[in-house]
Amino acid sequence: MTGLVDTALKTVGVARPSAKTASANAVMNTYNRFPLTLVRGKGCWVWDDQGHRYLDAVAGIATDTLGHSDRVMRRSLHRQLRRIQHVSNLYRIPEQEELADWLVQHSCADSVFFCNSGAEANEAAIKLARKHGHQRRNIERPVILTAAASFHGRTLAAVTATGQPKYHQGFEPVVEGFDYFNYNDINSFETALQKHEEHGPKVAAVLIEPLQGEGGVNPGDHAFFQTVRQRCSERNILLILDEVQVGMGRSGRLWGYEQIGIEPDAFTLAKGLGGGHAIGALLVQAEADVFRPGDHASTFGGNPFACRAGLTVAREIERRGLLQHVEQRGIQLREGLELLVERYPDLFEGTRGWGLLQGLVLRENSTCNAAQLSAAAIDQRLLLVAAGPRVLRMVPPLVITRREVQQLLQRLDATLATAA
Q1: How far is CA 390 from each of CA 170, 181, 215, 386, 415, rounded to the nearest angstrom?
Q2: Pair 370, 221 in one domain
Q3: The domain that contains 390 carries what CATH number?
Q4: For residues 297 and 82, what is the distance between their CA atoms, to the nearest angstrom?
Q5: What's the gap between Cα 287 and its chain centre?
Q6: Per residue in 9-60, pLDDT tens?
Q7: Based on the domain organization, do 285 and 408 belong to the same domain?
Q8: pLDDT tens for residues 295-308?
Q9: Which of 59, 79, 109, 211 could serve as a FRET partner for 24 with CA atoms 20 to 30 Å apart?
Q10: Residue 288 CA: distances (Å) to CA of 174, 237, 238, 282
C-alpha cells in the first residue's frame, strides 16, 4: 500500500513528506537531564539503551515503591486493564473506595480526596485551608504558614508555599496569603504566628513536611512539632503535613507523622502511593473536612487503574513486611554512609534521614556539589539524586535487599574515591 501511495504522489509531481523521527528536541527543555536513556527495569536495577545495568537509588525520586516491573504489580494492573481503566467521578468507583478504606483504616484520617500528583494534593490542601479559614475562623484573607527550604510542588500556589525563593523567580506575582518560618525553629515559628495573630485571627493553616526532602533531607524535630501541634490546636488552625515524599513506608513507618509523635488534621500523599503510577491524595480528619460537592474535583483523580496501583502497593507493604524491612535496610544504609563520612572527612560533614530516605551532607567548602557527585556516580553504574546543592540523596525502592545496599555503598565509595 505504501508503494502505491508513493507512486501516486510521484505521478502528480508531489513529494512524499518525510516522517519525523523521535527527538529529544521535541520535549520542552524544563530539565537538566543526565545523558542517559533508561529503557528497562527489574527490581532495583535499570538498563540503558546500550545494555548497561545500573543500581537505582533514585526510584523515580522516591516513587517506585516495589521497584521496577514488579511481578505482583504487573499482574494486578493487567487484570485491571481487562476490566476498566477510567470512569468519571460522577459515578462510584469500587477501586477508589477500597483504597480510601485502606488509607483511612491505617491512618488518623477519616476521608480521602484523590488526584494525580503531589502538587495537586497540596493544591487541594491549600483550598481546604482557605475554606477552613473563612468558615471556621472568620478570616477574610487567610494566611498559610510554611517552612523555609520546603518544597510543595510546581503549580502556582504550591510553588508559592515552597519556601525557596529560587523557585518563585520568573513567576511573579506569586499567590498571596503565604508566610514562612525556619524549619525546626520554634522561636521563628512563634514569631510568624504572633505576627499574623496579634490583631485577630489570620492564620488558616500550617503546611509543613515531617521531613524536608528536596530541602536537604532534614528530619523534623519532635519538640518542634509537638509545639506546632499544640499551637494549632489552641487556635483552631489546621496542621497539614506534606507526606508526598516520606509517606507510604519510606521512613520505616507507614507515615512520617508517626516518626515525630503527632497527628495532623490533614496530610498529602503521592509518589510512593502509586508505585510509579500517577496518583495523589489529600487525607483529612472529620473535623477538618469542610469540602462540599462542587468545592474541588479532578477528572482523572482516583480512577480505577491508578487506585488499583495504590491498592497493590498498600497490600504488598503489609504482605511483605516492608516497614520492618525498610527499618533494617535503613539502619544498614545509614551505618554505611557514616563510615563513608569518616573515610572522606574533607567532603562530608554528616548524614541524616529516616529509613530509606537518607542524605550525605557535603561540607560548605567541599570541592564538588551534590549534582556533580550524582553525575559521577553514573560512571559507577549507580543512580543518585541531589537534594539541594549540599546533600546527596538516596531513595531506593523499598524492596532493596541487604546485598544491594552493600553494592550501593561500594559503588558510592568508588565514586567518592574518584571525586576525592
Answers
A1: 24, 21, 10, 8, 16
A2: no
A3: 3.90.1150.10
A4: 26
A5: 26
A6: 343 344 444 455 567 789 999 999 999 999 999 999 999 999 999 999 999 9
A7: no
A8: 999 999 999 999 99
A9: 59
A10: 26, 10, 7, 12
- Same domain, yes or no, for 101 and 209? yes
Residue 275 and residue 229 share a domain: yes
The order of strands in the sheet holding 348-354 is: 348-354, 357-362, 391-394, 385-386
CB 76 within 8 A of CB 276: no
CB 115 within 8 A of CB 282: yes
The boundaries of the domain holding residue 313 are 71-319
Q: Residue length, the chain?
A: 420
Vertex 58, ends 28 and 329: CA angle to 5°? 170
Backbone dihedral region for residue 97 (phi beyond 0: left; psi -120 to 50: alpha; all else: beta) = alpha
Residue 304 domain flag: yes
How many separate domains does the chain show?
2
- Cis-peptide into 304, omega within 30 deg: no
The secondary structure element, H or E, covering residue 241 is: strand 238-242
- Residue 27: inside a domain, yes or no? no
Q: Which residues contact 407 (CB under 8 A, 6 or more apart)?
A: 55
Could you tell me if 221 and 160 are in contact, meaning their C-beta atoms sit under 8 angstroms apart?
no
